[in-house]
Amino acid sequence: MLGQATDLLDKRIHEIVIETLAEKDIKVIRFNKMVNEIEDYAILLLDREGNIENWNKGAQTLKGYQASEIIGKNFSVFYTPEDLAHDLPARLIQQATANGAAKSQGWRIRKDGSRFWGSILITAIHNQGDEVIGFTKVTRLLEPELQLN
């Protein structure tokens, strides 16, 4: 009887774990689909060095690259020569690592070389050990009247 009860309990625990994983998988799929479908904001997933790992429709619209053209490249490709000379992309990654987030406004470069004034937020992503494992980067186009110097 004890063996049957143990088997039954083990089976039920297994069913709960599978059910919970399935629910989590559905939530992850829904969340990823939601992020991918956002068109008003460029949302990127970066690795620890700032290399692009994921790219949504808003990023494609705002920056002009197809995902296949940009994934694997460093996000610094969007910065002006002046910002690169001042090492701004690396400094933003350092700031996000140290403080959890970094904000910036300025001219950014599209694939076709045109510039747009954008506001960016880079947020550190941590693992369970509180180590930075990557970043999210959200860019939004600012209208000329919203540009702050």
TrEMBL record:
Pfam families: PAS (PF00989). GO terms for biological process: regulation of DNA-templated transcription. It comes from the Bacteria. Residues 43-100 form the PAS domain. This is PAS domain S-box protein. It comes from Dyadobacter psychrotolerans.
